[in-house]
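Figure S4 source data
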Amino acid sequence: MEILAFGVQSDEKPLIEKAFAGLHDVRCLDVFLTEDTAPIAAGYEIISTSVNADLGSRVLQTLAAGGTQMIAQRSTGFNNIDLDVAERLALRVARVSYYSPHSVAEFAWTLAMAVNRRIVRAVSRTRDFDFRLDGLLGRDMHGRTAGVLGTGKIGEAFARIAHGFGMNLLGWDVAENPACTALGMTYVDKEQLFAEADLISLHVPLLPATQHLIGAEALSAMKDDAILVNSSRGGLVDTRALVEELRAGRFTGVGLDVYEAEAGLFYVDKSVEGIDDDTLARLVTFPNVIVTSHQAYYTRDAVGQIIDATVQNVTDYLAGRRSDNVLVPALPPR
């Protein structure tokens, strides 16, 4: 059987081909799954998609009409998938429920320290042989307060690093993580966390209840010199509201690895044609902001685990087995 994989990065392709070798043939495409590219999947019973795939109603209908019966998404998040429509169409959908939480937590800290210590500006200067320190003043993290919204595996890993810096820990989640409380984390309501944290990092899933969790009200409640990091999902932050706060001169720094309108932009080279997203264009002009293209998970360790789980999801589907990775449990008639 040949499997069609959409949105495969050049670094991923040899890893995917090696993982499927001896099991199934795999055709890797660098194009992402959209309404325009969905017809390519005609005749493929199994496809694999990336986190920025469009798996809305129209795309799912096209896939089902073309004979697709199983979708193996290579990510943990699944807010891009209309699960109700997938179930109605009897499509099996699986995701990767776990991969290295350290990849994302470490990258979140990379963003935090880069904006705190003005690394991008410093590197840009030294490349021009400008070795002044003006404008590069940072601050110690030791003794300050880290606020962690979402204390699951990734939030816990982030908190462990914060603990290593000697920071005070505040947490917010629907349930307390004993491993975090053992680090000395105090769970508070999010309003208190916004008001007291010097560094705020987001590690919650994107759900209707968390859409724009960081909106105008939350942003206004934060310290003027706070650092905000989002390596989870772009929709957690109201970007327009964030831009307004930045224009007012607030925040020491903002590190964003995700953006609420990233689909169609991230993972694509727009350097020649440019973009028509005025909000993103304005956001990247602020000297205290770093935007990266949803790469926090992108380590050899994490990507390898994601691919291995994807292979297992396909194997389980063909064997008629279900696992915790399955989002829509439909099985094909066999």
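Figure S5 source data
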Amino acid sequence: MMKQYVMEPGADAIRLVDATETEVGVKDVKVELKAASLNYRDILMRKRAPEAIVPFSDGAGVVVEVGAEVEDFKVGDRVLGLFFPNWIDGEITREIHGVARGGGDVDGMLSEFVVGHEQSFVAVPEHLDFEEASTLPCAGLTAWHALFEHARPAKKGDTILIQGTGGVSIFALQLAVAFGLKTIVLSSSSEKLERVQEIGATHTINYLETPDWDKEVWRITEKRGVDLVVEVGGAGTLERSMKAVKYHGVISLIGVLTGTQAEVNPFPVVGKSLQVFGIYVGSKEMHHRFHAALEKHAIKPVVDKVFAFEAAEEAYTHQKSGKHFGNVVVRGL
């Protein structure tokens, strides 16, 4: 038997239960969880789970057993689970989209042991510990994809607008600094804005003090606009993002922190010849490129707070409060 959490359908709750360990198939690896990280998507899934499943898309651990035909890993290897276990390379498809850890009917990582096909895991970058590595599959890879993996990747000297100071946003800032991009970071907290300046943010805007932040962006960029927006707000911020980005600029549309419904005038997309890319995490091959960049620039993820396995519910509460800076992590047993 092993310990694992399950989400109850429609209950907005998780339970710690004793579960039967899954048998290891010939191409499977068994991973002992060392750390799992929380994302906003995990909060959304609590209310939408169609059946009892294990939560958390992201986690890292050590391989404790391998199937007879496993080629990529051996016992003792440090690995993290892919958000999309079947997205190895190329474009996302309906089939890939339908099989994501910790959502729908697919078990996530918040379990003492996790068993899966060897292709659904990737090696942990050598310079990271388990808690840091657990933040890479969703928050980290999403930020990397948003900046560098679409048809109009950011380049040295570009100015990017980053909304907020959560996991994706702080990863985006760290990557931007490493790659020589100029940044404008939005937050409602002056304390957090001081912290992003310590990381290397070029400009900051407190959007409570400056609600028309798109106009301030226009001023900072001398009426040019930013080259790219890391858009995590969704419906409530998209229209201002369209105003803040330059003509022929890029919006990487990621999150829905402000909701999914609002009146949004789409004309700037046409009038300014904008490109809006929907970013939904990424593939295993993107992971390889992302990890190489992390190692080259010695980037270590920002972990806000680490909770004990038994305190996973407290981790949800902390993430939902919006008080975190970077990533929220739950330690394995």
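The radius of gyration is 20 Å. The chain has a mean pLDDT of 94.
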